[in-house]
Design goal:
single chain, alpha/beta, 5-stranded parallel beta sheet, 7 helices, 19% strand, binds flavin mononucleotide, flavoprotein, EC 1.7.1.17, oxidoreductase, FMN dependent NADH:quinone oxidoreductase
Length: 219
C-alpha cells in the first residue's frame, strides 16, 4: 500500500456554474488521483486544498521556534510550529506527492510557497553543517516521487520554448522538492488558457493523456 499526498494550490474552485471559471490544474489532480485509485484501490490519499485553506505565513516567532532545539522550545514556540508539524507529518508519510499548481506571475501561487515555507525546516527536512563547505544543506528524507501538474495562461515555458527563461514555476518546485525527499520528479501541464482557442483544447487533452500514461507507468 502506498500513501499519496495530494496538494491543490489554485484559488479557483471546481464547482463553478460557468465551466470556464473552474481550475484546470485541480482537474488534472483529480484525473491523476482517480486513475491512480482505479488501479491501486488499497492506497490512501491525504488531500489539502491550499487555495481554499491557505497556510499561515511564517513569522519572526516561527523562525525563532524552528531554530530552537526541540527539547528547549517554550510552550508558545511549540504552538508556533503546530501547523508546520502537521504539514510535515502528512508529507513524511507520503510515497507519492501530487502537487497541482497554476502559474501566477511566472511562479507558484503564494499559498503553495507558504506551504513550502512552513514545511522546510532545519533538522526536520534538512540538516545544515558548515563542515560540508559551500553546500552545507542536505535533505533528510529520500525515496519519494513528486508529480507536478500545472496550468498556465501563456505558452512556451518548456525546454527550448519562447518563454523558457520566464518559467519560475516548475524549476522552483523541482529545486525545493529535494528537501521533501523527492528523488523522482515528473511534470505535466497545459498552456494557452488565456487564448481559449484550439491550442488550449489540444494542450489540455494532451496533458490528460500524459497523466493517464504516467499513472500506468508508475502503477
Ligand atoms: C493572479 C494570476 C496570475 C497569472 N499569471 C500568469 C503568468 O504569469 N503566466 C501565465 O502564463 N499565466 C498566468 N496566469 C493564468 C493562469 O496561469 C491560468 O489561468 C491557469 O489556468 C490558472 O490555473 P487554474 O486553472 O488551475 O486556476 C495568471 C492567472 C492569475 C489569476
Amino acid at each position: 500500500m502506498k500513501n499519496i499526498l495530494h496538494i491543490d494550490s489554485s484559488v479557483r474552485r471546481t464547482d463553478n456554474s460557468t465551466a470556464s471559471y473552474n481550475s484546470i490544474s485541480k482537474s488534472f489532480g483529480r484525473c491523476f488521483i482517480d486513475a491512480w485509485l482505479s488501479k491501486n484501490h488499497q492506497d490512501k490519499v491525504v488531500y489539502r486544498d491550499l487555495g481554499l485553506n491557505p497556510p499561515t505565513f511564517i513569522s519572526q516567532d516561527w523562525i525563532a521556534a524552528a531554530f530552537t532545539p526541540e527539547q528547549k522550545r517554550s510552550e508558545s514556540q511549540q504552538f508556533a510550529l503546530v501547523e508546520s508539524d502537521t504539514y510535515f507529518d502528512e508529507m513524511a508519510k507520503a510515497d507519492v506527492i501530487v502537487i497541482t499548481a497554476p502559474m501566477y506571475n511566472y511562479g507558484m501561487p503564494a499559498v503553495l510557497k507558504a506551504w513550502f515555507d512552513q514545511m522546510l525546516r532545519v533538522n526536520k527536512t534538512f540538516t545544515f553543517d558548515l563542515a560540508r563547505g559551500d553546500f552545507p544543506i542536505e535533505p533528510i528524507l529520500s525515496g519519494k516521487t513528486l508529480v507536478l501538474l500545472t496550468s498556465s495562461g501563456e505558452f512556451g515555458f518548456g525546454v527550448g520554448g519562447v518563454r523558457e527563461q520566464m518559467n519560475h514555476l516548475g524549476p522552483h518546485i523541482k529545486e525545493l522538492a529535494k528537501y521533501l525527499g523527492v528523488d523522482t520528479f515528473y511534470e505535466i501541464g497545459s498552456e494557452y488558457q488565456e487564448f481559449a482557442d484550439d491550442r488550449h483544447a489540444s494542450s489540455v487533452k494532451k496533458a490528460k493523456q500524459d497523466i493517464a500514461a504516467l499513472v500506468n507507468r508508475l502503477s
